[in-house]
Structure formats: C-alpha cells, structure tokens
Amino acid sequence: MLTTAPRGTKDILPDTSGHWQYIEETAYTVCRTYGYSEIRTPVFEHTELFLRGIGETTDIVDKEMYTFTDRGERSITLRPENTAAVVRAFLEHKLYAGPQPTKLFYMGPMFRYDRPQAGRYRQFHQFGVEAIGSKGAAIDAEIIVLAVQFLRKLGLNELKLNINSVGCPQCRPVYRTRLQEFLKEKVTAMCGDCQSRFDRNPMRILDCKKEACTALSQGAPQMVDCLCDECQAHFSQLKDLLTAADVEFVLNPRLVRGLDYYTKTAFEIQYSPLGAQSAVCGGGRYDGLIEECGGQPTPGIGFAIGLERVLLALEKQNLLPQAKNDIDLYIAPLGENAQAPAFRLLCQLRQEGIACDMDFLNRSLKAQMKYANKYPAKFVAIIGEEEVQQNKVMLKNMETGEQQLIDMDTIQQQFKAERKG
Ligand code: ATP
Ligand code: MG
Q: Is residue 295 part of a domain?
C-alpha cells in the first residue's frame, strides 16, 4: 500500500514530464494565438455545483464522482470536469462585465471513478476551452478549429471530427417524444442502463456503446431532422464556416447530450488508432447552463481534450520529442578544499543563466567524468588542490577532449565565448 499509488492514478516521472511540458506549451501557444486566457479554478468544489452543472442523469454524476464530506460537514467533490467550475468563476467574479465574449482555457487534473484501462484513469488531465457570451455559430467554428489546430500542431493528422446538433428546449421535446415512440418496443431487449435511460434521458440510448443496443437503435429518428428554424440555421452556418476553414467533418446523429442546458452544437474528435478509447476531445454548446447555475441567460460553448489520450497517440506515432537534459558545464571538485570555490562558481554561473551542476557525492575524478558524460555536459571544470591554490580551473571540452587552464574570475567570459564558438 505505502509503495503503490492508488488505482487509476499515475506518477509522471522525469523521463516523461518533458512530454507533458511539450503538450502544455503547445496548448498555451495555440490559445494565445486565438485570444484565450488561462483560468485556474480549485480542484474541488461544492458537490451541488456538479449536480447542477453536469446533470444527475449522466455517467459522471451517476457513478463516477469522488464525493466526500469535509470536516465542516460540507459535501465536496473533486472536479470530474471543469466547465461547471469555470461558469461558477465567471459568475462569482462577474467576468461578464469585461470584454465579450469571455474566452478562457484551463489545464489540469480531473477525477472520475472510472474503470482503469488504457486511456482511462481516475486522475487524468484535460486541456479545455470555454467561450462564454456569444450565440453565433462563428464562435463554435472558432473553438472547433482551435481544437483541431492544437492536435495537428502536435502532428496528429488522422483525426475524425464528428458533429451534430442537439437542438434546443423548443425543438428537443418534439424529438424526444418521436424517439421514445421509436424505442418503446425495443427497449426491453436493451441493457439495464438503456432501460433506465428510456424515461430519464432517452437520447443517451443512441450513445450506448453496447453492440446489441446500437443494433436496436439503428434507424432511429434523428435530431437534425427535427431542428427548429433557429437551430437549423445555426447548424448550417457552422458547417459552412468549417468548410470555409478547410476542416473536414462528418455528421454523427449518435452524438448526443440530452440535458436541457446543452444546446445546438455537439462535437467530438476521434483519433481512431487509439482503439476503444479513441475520443480525444468532446465539446458542445451549453446555452442554458449559466442560467441553471444562477446567472442571467448567457450562451456558451467549450470543449475538453484528454491529455493522456493525446500522449498515447503521440507515443504510438513516434511524435514525442527526445528528452533533453544536457547541461553546459559540470563542475568536478576534488577534495575538501575545492568544495567552496566549486560551489561559488556553480552559483555564479547559474545566476548568469548557464545550465550547470556539480558533484555532491565526493566521487573520484573518473566517476565524475563518467557522470558528466551521462548528462551529457558540454564542458567539465575540474578543480583540484593545485587549481584552488592558483585560483584557476581546468576546463575540458567534452566533445574535442581539449583542456585549458583558465582563471577562476574569467571563466564566465571564457565559458560564454566557448559556448558561442
Ligand atoms: P468516454 O466516453 O471515453 O468516457 P467522456 O464522454 O466521459 O468520454 P468527456 O466528459 O467528454 O468524456 O471528456 C472529454 C475528454 O476527456 C474525453 O474525450 C477523453 O479524452 C478524456 N477523458 C474522459 N474521461 C477520462 C478518463 N477517465 N481518463 C482519461 N481521459 C478521460
Ligand atoms: Mg466517461
């Protein structure tokens, strides 16, 4: 117990943390290009927020939340996703009073009691974007293009963008009734989950991954055929804009949400080489959510990308950058008397922004050289008894093997010159 992390969690060790930094920096760069600013919210919130903001008939709220009572008898939940928290912060800090739309992004750990397997963990990381305050289809197109560009920038090309419209509270009830009518006879042969979805959230039946259920819902009426004029126009504008941006998409009528505050655009990006867990990005419009959370009616749209799945995809395609740990200089003190001058030199050079390290284990010269080579270090500065007395160092170029005795005081200039040359 003491030496294993909890099931479904993962340590990110030094050999892979560079990959995470690479993905995170790519996300920062893309968001800056699109005018999205970072927001960081707490990793836990009042449970009520997620009950409202995600909806009680979803898998997340039904069976995946990490909920506990804290010492003050409050019900607290580790965030399973971040849209609700962003909306809470948007309202709490009156971000609606600033420039509109409010364009935000976030990155960080999420927590779900999922069944751990490749691409599915209990603590995982999402990069997400939310644009609050615009109801036009252009902002939908913008964030979809942003997600696609982020994934392409990392080198992922075999992307499949699925889009659908889930309508709005005007047109959806009509569809819901038509769908229930169609499923009425078939639902008894479906899985237990689908049976309980029939009354509570029949659209989710279309989303069931079980083969039997998928087969039975074949030929079901489609939401896109029941859209009201406004939703219809919005959806066709979105398709025009994606086409104008050269982003390919497929219409997927099974992409549903089914909660009242999810409206119009729903989309998902799949990376099929990942197999069962191929969804890397899920997103959509939530024009009713802000009101549901206690604000004025305000439209919004966002997506979340699962970074573990992105990392798996990059690994599969050999697209991850090589780890770089090399340093400019390794300082090798020999003997007690060399410690202080070596350490002073180390501190001075680091202040100058020169990446360097020194021996902290009193190793022999041979062992230190071996260690420096492993790093690898471009140069080694050897400081022995004699060097201490003369206030000099023996600078060795590890590439050419050349050695040069130089003044301790001038090593900074010397070293910088060597580095440039
Ligand atoms: P799935 O159908 O795979 O469970 P989801 O519908 O629960 O996905 P969303 O809530 O839309 O997923 O979250 C957006 C993205 O976050 C997903 O596309 C996926 O990449 C990632 N994700 C979701 N749950 C997990 C998890 N348990 N472990 C790792 N990544 C996850
Ligand atoms: Mg899930």
A: yes
Residue 196 in domain: no
Ligand 1 centroid–CA 350 distance in Å is 42
Q: Please give the annotated binding residues, written as ranges.
A: 81-83, 112, 126, 130, 257, 261-262
Q: Are 338 and 387 in contact (CB under 8 A)?
A: yes
Average pLDDT across the chain, whole number: 94
Q: Which domain holds residue 407?
A: 327-417
- Asked if residues 15 and 322 have their Cβ atoms less than 8 Å apart, the reply is no
| Distance between CA atoms of residues 57 and 227, nearest Å | 23
| Residue ranges at the known binding site for L-histidine | 81-83, 112, 126, 130, 257, 261-262
Residue ending a domain, among 294, 317, 340, is: 317
Dihedral over Cα of 337, 339, 343, 349: its sign: positive
State how many domains the chain has.
Answer: 2
Query: How sure is the predictor about 418, in pLDDT bands with cuts at 50, 70 and 90?
Result: low
CA of residue 306 to ligand 1 center, whole Å:
6
Residue 191 CA to ligand 2 centre (angstroms): 17
Do both 331 and 313 map to the same domain? no
The pTM of the full predicted model, rounded to 2 decimals, is 0.93
Residue 194 lies in a domain: no
pLDDT, tens digit, 9 for 90 and up, residues 80-124 = 999 999 999 999 999 999 999 999 999 999 999 999 999 999 999
Is 210 a member of any domain? no
**CATH number for 355:** 3.40.50.800
In angstroms, the CA 120 to CA 117 distance is: 5
CB atoms within 10 A of CB 115: 9
- For ligand 1, is residue 81 a contact (CB within 6 Å)? yes
Examine the domain organization and report whether 266 and 378 are in the same domain: no
Whether 129 lines ligand 1, by a CB cut-off of 6 Å, is no
